[in-house]
Amino acid sequence: MKVLMILDHVFPPDTRVENEIASLSAAGHEVHIACFAQDNKPLVEKKATCIIHRKKISKFTFKASVGVLKLPFYFRFWRKFVNELFAENGFDVIHIHDLPLAKIGLEAKKRYNVKYILDLHENWPVLLQLSQHTNTFLGKMLSSNSQWVDYERDMCQKADEIIVVVDEAKKRIASLGVDEKKIHVVSNTLDINQFDVIERKGFNKENFRILYVGGINYHRGIQYVIDALAILKSKGINIYFDLVGDGRYLADIRERIVEKHVEDLVVVHGFKKYTQIPEVYENANLAIIPHIKSGHTDNTIPHKIFQYLYAEIPILTSNCDPLERIVNETHSGISYHYDNAEELAGIMEELYKNPEKLNDYIHNGRQAVVEKYNWAVDGAKLNELYRSIG
Asked: What are phi and psi of 32, to 5 degrees?
C-alpha cells in the first residue's frame, strides 16, 4: 500500500516515526512523509525507506497552531499540502501522528476514500493544559481545554484505526466511547539493532552517579532530584547527577542548583544527539525518570526507559502508571512518589550504602527488552494492523 504519514514538525529526527517507517517499508509498503521544511534540506528527498515531502511554513501560520481549533490558518496550510500530495501521488492510507491534525486525516479519508489511522503519542488535551505556552494570557485565549477534549473524542470515534503507546492509553481512549477493537498498542520500544551499548564502569563510592536524559521542563520533575541531592549532601553523602538535555525550564533548574548549593554535584551536559546518548551511560549507576504524575504521564511512555533497561542501568522512576508498572514487572528498579524528595533521597541513600542491591536489577532489564519490550515485537504489531486494513 501507499502510505502518507503527516508530521507537524521537521523530520528527521523522530525515533518512533523512523521505526514505524522501517517496519512498514520492510513489509513492502511505500511510505511518504509530509513535514515542515528545514534549512539545507530538499523539499523532496528520496531515502531507502521513504520519500520525504517538505513544505515551508510562515512564522505566523506556525504560531497559529496553538489556536488551531479556533483559527483556520494552520488547517488551511496542511489541507493544501495534503491535497497537493494526493493529486501528485495518490495514497491508500493516511497516517496522522498525534491529535492536532486529526481533522486533516478525517477530511482526506472522506475526500479520497482512503483508510485513516490516528497515531496518538500523547494525551494531547492534558499535555496542552500543562504546557507553559498555553497558560499565558494569549495561550488561554487561543486554546480551550474543553474544546480539545471534545475534539479528541470526536476524532477518535471517526478514525478507522487508532494507535496508542501503552495499555493505559488504550483504556483511556476506550472510555471516550471508542470501540476497543480499533485501538492498537504499538509502544515506544527500542530497536536493539540500532542501539550500541557501551560497557559501564562498576560501583565507585566516590563517584556514584545518577543519569537523566530528556527534555527539561517543569513537568519532568527534575527539581525534586535537585532537592534530594541537597538532602543527601546535608548528611555528608555526595551523589553526582548527570543532566543531559535542554528545554525552557533549564534556567530555573540552574537557579535551583545554586540555591540548594549542589553545584559541585550536578553536571549539565546540554543536548546530545540520539547517537551520542550511549556514551553518557558509561558512568551511570542509576538512571532516573522523575516525571510529575499527571493525566499525560499516566498515558504515555518515554523511549529512554527501554534504552536504560537494555543498557542494564537500574532505574529510579516516579510513580507514573506505565513507568511504575514496567519497572515493577521487569524488576529493574524502584519507584517513588513523584514529588517526595525525602523518599527519593532515602532510596538513593539506601542504594549508595548497599550497592549490592543494584545487582538485583541490572540483568533483568535487558532480558525484558530482548523478550518483550523491543521494536521487533511492536513493529510486527504495526504490520499486522496494516495487513488487517489492506
From this structure: -115, 145
